[in-house]
Design brief:
A six-stranded mixed β-sheet has the order 5-6-7-3-8-9, with helices on both faces. A three-stranded antiparallel β-sheet has the order 2-1-4, covered by helices on one side. The protein is globular and about 50 Å long. The chain has nine helices and nine strands. The protein is an alpha/beta fold. Helix 5 runs parallel beside helix 6, helix 7 crosses helix 8 and helix 7 crosses helix 9. Strand 8 and strand 9 form a beta hairpin. The termini are far apart.
């Protein structure tokens, strides 16, 4: 697979009213096309900062971020899913899904509208297109939010704890939904989560960060049994528990 995203000695310092705070120090990692990667690390270490840098919302203080081999990031090729679904209650499901297309007005808007319609049908939302988001379950709302992002046909999806607001049972189900959609559509994803089990069961690669200023402690390639996150949890693979213990140990060392 080709490299999609590369971080090369990336540093980031942000300013406060009274001081400079070093958030990232010499961060290096790569994500390949169609890979599902996850960032884990202590609270406040800079995981969301990395997402913001990748999305082009922030500029690195030094170092290089390459997207498809280019240092200039094409933000139109990057989709962002937040902790909340940010669906507008006064718009229908269809109007929420096509909001990005309304704003961006891409030249191929009609083609992307057709893609959006196909995605809605494919992932069992077509019967709800004229309803308001308040009538949907939490899991369905996240599916709508994901399809809204996919309608713009991004090459990379950034997922900032998108399941954290859901109850545990719904969270397990939505993890399966989101993972399956991303894999079926052959997209690349970078997830931020505090849930180690979630990271293990969803990822092809886990990037472990140190406490602030964050550096990459380790990149772990995963090959667990099971086709979906829930299957991987159920398989009770010994490597699952070993990975959990290893990551837990890495994070615990950082908090002592």
């Amino acid at each position: 697979m080709e490299k999609l995203l590369e971080y090369e000695k990336v540093n980031y310092i942000y300013q406060t009213k009274t001081d400079e705070i070093e958030a990232l120090r010499d961060v290096n990692f790569t994500i390949e096309e169609e890979e599902f990667a996850t960032l884990v690390g202590p609270s406040g270490c800079g995981k969301t900062t990395i997402l913001s840098l990748t999305a082009g919302l922030l500029k690195p203080t030094s170092g290089k971020i390459k997207f498809k081999g280019n240092e200039k990031i094409d933000t139109r090729q990057i989709g962002y899913m937040f902790q909340k679904d940010y669906l507008f209650e006064w718009r229908s499901v269809w109007k929420n899904i096509t909001l990005g297309l309304e704003i961006q007005k891409p030249e191929d808007k009609e083609q992307k509208m057709k893609i959006a319609e196909e995605l809605i049908k494919k992932y069992d939302l077509y019967n709800f297109i004229n309803q308001r988001p308040r009538s949907l379950s939490g899991g369905m709302r996240q599916r709508v939010a994901l399809i809204r992002t996919l309608a713009l046909n991004p090459s990379l999806l950034l997922l900032d704890e998108p399941f954290s607001a859901l109850d545990y049972q719904t969270r397990l189900s939505v993890c399966d939904d989101v993972y399956s959609i991303i894999k079926n559509e052959k997209k690349t994803a970078l997830l931020v989560t505090h849930d180690i089990s979630e990271a293990i069961c969803m990822s092809d690669k886990i990037i472990v960060l140190s406490k602030r200023p964050a550096t990459v402690k380790e990149e772990m390639k995963l090959e667990l049994k099971g086709k979906t996150p829930l299957e991987k949890r159920k398989m009770k693979d010994e490597s699952f528990s070993k990975l959990f213990d290893k990551i837990w140990s890495e994070l615990t060392d950082e908090t002592e």
